[in-house]
Specification:
494 residues, mainly beta, 7-stranded mixed beta sheet, disordered N terminus
Length: 494
C-alpha cells in the first residue's frame, strides 16, 4: 500500500534584534571605505592634473629662457656688439641682458610660461677683443699683403710712453732693431736676428709673403710684451722669447725651439715659464681705420697765412725754391713769424737734395704742400724757446678711403736729414728712407720703403680731421672689435 507523506514546511530562521544592527554597521563601513577611496582617487587626479600643468609651465619657461640665450648668441655673432645687450620677445616670451668683464660676457635670460611661471638662465662665454689704439698712432704704413717691410732703422722713443706702429693692409713687418713701440698688423711679424719689440704685438697673419708664420722669432728676437697671433707661431733657439703671454687659436701651429709644442700652456720662452703663459683661444683680428684721404684745402688751416708758389710767383717761384743757391729755407722759412701754409702744388716738387742750402730754424708752425719731396741736406730745428710743428704733405685727391698713388708722388729722405722739429710726413705713395739722418714726429704713407738707419724720434701728429677736429689731431683709431669665444658655464639661477 502506497503511503503518501506530506513535506513539512521549513522552519524560518529567527532574527535577533542585535543581528539587524550589526548588518547596518557593516553596510555603513563599506560605504565609508568606498567614499574614502573615491575621494582619494579624486584628490590624486586633481593633484596629478595640477602637477602636469606646473610641469608644462616650467618646461615652457625654461624653453623660453633657452630661446633667449640662442637669440642673444645669434645677435652677438652677427654684430660683435654684445656687452650691453637687451633683447625681448613675446612668442616665446623672454628678456635677455648681457654684461662684459675681464674677457667674459654673461648673458642673463628670463623666460616665462603660460601659467606665469619664470625661469632665469645664465650663460657665460669667453670673448677676445681686438686692440684699441689709443691716441693718434705715430707710424702708419699701408703696405699691402705680400709686401715685405725690412725695418732696420732704429725707431727712437716718443716723448712719453711707447709709440704705435700700424700696418693696416697686411704687410709683413721684418724687424732687425730695437722698436720701442706696440706693433699691430693685419699681416705678420718676422724677426731677422736682433729684433726687440718693447711693447705688444698683434699679428693677424694675413700675409702671403710668409705663409707659414703669423709671428716668427729666432736668433735673439724678443717681444717684451704680449703677443696675439692669428696664426702659427715659431719661437726659435737662442735667447728668443716672449716676455708676456702668447695667445693663439687652438688650431694654430706652435713651435718652440723647432719642436711642436702642441697644447702646451707654459714654456721657459714665454712669460718666464709661468702657467697659462700660452693661451689657446680665439684671437680677434686687429681692426684698423681705413686710409685717411687728405686732398688739402686752405680752409683746413684757419689762422694760417696761405702762400702759393707758382712758376711766376715772387719772390720765390718753382725755379728758385730748389737749387744750390736758394735762400728759400735759410731766409724765407727761418724768418716766418706766423703759422704758414706754403702750397707748391703748381710746381714739380720740393727738392733739397741738389746741394740746396736747406737749413732753417723754425719758430712757428709750417705746412709744406707739394707733389713730391726729395729731402737731403736738410736741417730743420726749433728756435730757442719755441715748440713748432711742421707737415710735409703730398695730397691724396681721390676720396676713396684708399691710398691713391700716382707715380712719383713720394717723400724721400736721405742721409743728411736733421729734422728735430715735430714733423708729420703724409703721402699716398711711398716714404723712402735713405742712409741715416733723423726724423722727429709721425709718418703716414701708402707704403714704407725702409732701406736705411734713420733714427725716428716718434711723436703723435696728424692732419686736420684725421684723429680729431683740428691740426695736430687727437682721439683714437681702430680696434675694439670683439669676437665671441667658447661657452664657459650655463645654469638656471633662482
Amino acid at each position: 500500500m502506497l503511503v503518501t507523506r506530506r513535506a513539512r514546511p521549513r522552519a524560518r530562521a529567527s532574527v535577533r534584534p542585535d543581528d539587524a544592527g550589526s548588518t547596518l554597521v557593516s553596510v555603513l563601513v563599506v560605504m565609508m571605505v568606498l567614499t574614502i577611496v573615491a575621494l582619494t582617487a579624486a584628490s590624486v587626479v586633481t593633484a596629478t592634473s595640477s602637477s602636469i600643468a606646473g610641469v608644462r609651465g616650467g618646461v615652457q619657461s625654461a624653453a623660453a629662457a633657452d630661446a633667449g640665450i640662442s637669440a642673444a648668441l645669434a645677435d652677438a655673432r652677427r654684430t660683435g656688439d654684445f656687452c650691453s645687450l637687451s633683447l625681448a620677445s613675446t612668442a616665446p616670451r623672454y628678456a635677455v641682458t648681457s654684461a662684459c668683464a675681464g674677457g667674459r660676457v654673461t648673458f642673463t635670460s628670463t623666460g616665462h610660461g603660460a601659467d606665469g611661471g619664470a625661469t632665469t638662465t645664465r650663460a657665460v662665454y669667453a670673448y677676445t677683443e681686438a686692440p684699441s689704439f689709443g691716441g693718434a698712432p705715430e707710424l702708419v704704413f699701408f703696405n699691402p699683403a705680400g709686401d715685405s717691410v725690412y725695418f732696420t732703422n732704429h725707431v727712437m722713443p716718443k716723448t712719453q710712453g711707447r709709440a704705435t706702429v700700424l700696418f693696416p693692409a697686411g704687410g709683413l713687418f721684418e724687424c732687425k732693431t730695437q722698436v720701442p713701440a706696440n706693433v699691430f698688423t693685419a699681416g705678420s711679424v718676422k724677426g731677422q736676428s736682433g729684433c726687440t719689440i718693447d711693447g705688444d704685438v698683434h699679428a693677424g697673419g694675413a700675409n702671403p709673403a710668409d705663409r707659414r708664420w703669423a709671428v716668427y722669432l729666432n736668433n735673439s728676437d724678443v717681444v717684451q710684451g704680449d703677443v696675439y697671433a692669428g696664426g702659427a707661431v715659431a719661437i726659435g733657439n737662442n735667447p728668443s722669447r716672449i716676455g708676456g703671454t702668447l695667445t693663439l687659436p687652438s688650431s694654430a701651429k706652435l713651435q718652440i725651439a723647432w719642436t711642436d709644442a702642441g697644447a702646451a700652456t707654459s714654456s721657459p720662452k714665454v712669460f718666464s715659464g709661468q702657467a697659462n703663459g700660452i693661451r689657446r683661444e680665439a684671437v680677434a683680428p686687429p681692426v684698423f681705420d681705413p686710409w685717411f684721404d687728405y686732398a688739402y684745402a686752405s680752409a683746413d688751416w684757419p689762422g694760417y697765412d696761405i702762400v702759393t708758389v707758382t712758376p711766376a710767383s715772387a719772390p720765390y717761384s718753382c725755379a728758385n725754391i730748389v737749387g744750390k743757391f736758394t735762400t728759400f729755407w735759410s731766409s724765407y722759412i727761418q724768418n716766418l713769424t706766423t703759422n704758414t701754409v706754403v702750397d707748391t702744388t703748381a710746381c714739380p716738387g720740393i727738392d733739397t737734395a741738389q746741394g740746396a742750402n736747406a737749413t732753417a730754424q723754425l719758430g712757428v708752425n709750417l705746412v709744406l704742400v707739394a707733389n713730391r719731396f726729395t729731402l737731403g741736406n736738410l736741417s730743420l730745428t726749433p728756435k730757442a724757446g719755441t715748440d713748432p710743428q711742421a707737415w710735409f704733405v703730398v695730397p691724396d685727391p681721390v676720396a676713396d678711403k684708399a691710398p691713391t698713388c700716382t707715380k712719383g708722388r713720394t717723400i724721400e729722405t736721405d742721409a743728411a736729414i736733421d729734422v728735430r722739429v715735430k714733423t708729420m710726413a703724409y703721402t699716398p705713395c711711398a716714404i723712402r728712407i735713405g742712409n741715416g739722418g733723423t726724423w722727429t714726429g709721425a709718418m703716414y704713407a701708402g707704403t714704407l720703403d725702409d732701406g736705411g738707419t734713420v733714427g725716428i724720434h716718434t711723436h703723435s701728429l696728424a692732419l686736420p680731421g684725421q684723429w680729431g677736429s683740428g691740426p695736430g689731431g687727437s682721439g683714437s683709431t681702430g680696434g675694439g672689435a670683439k669676437t665671441l669665444g667658447a661657452l664657459l658655464s650655463q645654469r638656471d639661477i633662482p
